[in-house]
Design a protein that fits this description.
Layout (H helix, E strand, L loop, with lengths): L4 E4 L19 H12 L3 E4 L5 H11 L5 E3 L4 E3 L5 E4 L4 H13 L4 E4 L4 E3 L4 H10 L4 E2 L12 E5 L2 H15 L3 E5 L3 E6 L4 H12 L6 E5 L5 H6 L2 E4 L5 H6 L2 E2 L6 H12 L4
Helix pairs in contact: 1-9
């Protein structure tokens, strides 16, 4: 069955891993490949952990008019910013997680698609603000900021994040979707993931699952790699993405651009 849509993660996929936290843009070759896909009739959709402003910046770079999936799948937006889908986390559960963060003396974040409120400044929070195109807001009690949250996160270290993830899964894994990132453990609503969001967009566009390719590299991409008819992991992907994918791209310079170029060449004429 012909491919109708390719869903692309941004950081670590469209932007190489070393570009995270900087003002890197996609390579010229990848930009040409994405535009060639669109010209051949293949939709390109961005699905990112970034908030809407940072995601839409890359969409504009490519000249895309498709919706974008933001914040691990917590929201879906049209190019003009109109939000078509949003998944809020239960406030009571979010406050419990903030309490646990205070117990273990860790900073924590409280966010929605447009605001990012954090209890303490760090390199990780500043980087996330850069890629998301927003200014982080700092206050000791983010839960009292007035933001209706789509998620919360506990900020830690490479050494401690996995243990925090295990604890949150034990406490709330039956109620929430808990993501194990290297320096932060994020909790969102159970149905807030890129796979579910991608299914909603495809329903809106009339595209079947078998006509979708998803490409990513991280834990927050696993659900969409598993949902897509063909899930592809980047060569440097974490264990979550590797386990969810059907295949892995071969290492090499601009390997994603080369894959998309091949896809265009194999697309049916007309």
């Amino acid at each position: 069955m012909a491919v109708k849509l390719v869903a692309l993660d941004i950081d670590g996929t469209v932007i190489p891993p070393h570009g995270y936290g900087a003002t890197h843009e996609p390579t010229e070759r990848l930009t040409r490949a994405v535009r060639a896909c669109v010209d051949s009739g293949i939709h390109i959709l961005l699905a990112s952990g970034r908030m809407f402003p940072g995601t839409s910046q890359i969409a504009r770079h490519f000249g895309l008019t498709t919706p974008v999936i933001c914040q691990q799948g917590c929201s879906v937006h049209l190019p003009d910013g109109t939000m078509t889908h949003e998944f809020l986390i239960d406030r009571g559960l979010a406050i419990e997680i903030c309490g646990y963060a205070r117990e273990i003396e860790r900073a924590y974040e409280w966010f929605n698609p447009l605001r990012y409120v954090v209890s303490a400044r760090s390199r990780a929070t500043e980087q996330y603000g850069i890629v998301s195109g927003i200014e982080p807001e700092y206050r000791r009690d983010p839960e009292n900021s007035g933001v209706r949250p789509t998620g919360v996160g506990i900020i830690s270290t490479h050494a401690d994040a996995n243990g925090i993830h295990r604890e949150l899964v034990a406490r709330h894994g039956h109620e929430l979707h808990v993501l194990d990132f290297p320096e932060v453990t994020v909790a969102v609503a159970q149905d807030a993931n890129k796979g579910h969001a991608l299914s909603l967009v495809c329903d809106d566009l009339g595209i079947g699952r078998a006509q979708v390719i998803a490409i990513g590299d991280s834990v927050n991409d696993a659900a969409m790699l598993a949902w897509a008819g063909r899930g592809i992991a980047m060569p440097h992907s974490d264990a979550y993405a590797m386990d969810a994918a059907d295949e892995v791209l071969e290492p090499g310079e601009d390997m994603l651009a080369a894959f998309l170029e091949d896809l265009v060449r194999s697309a049916p004429a007309g």
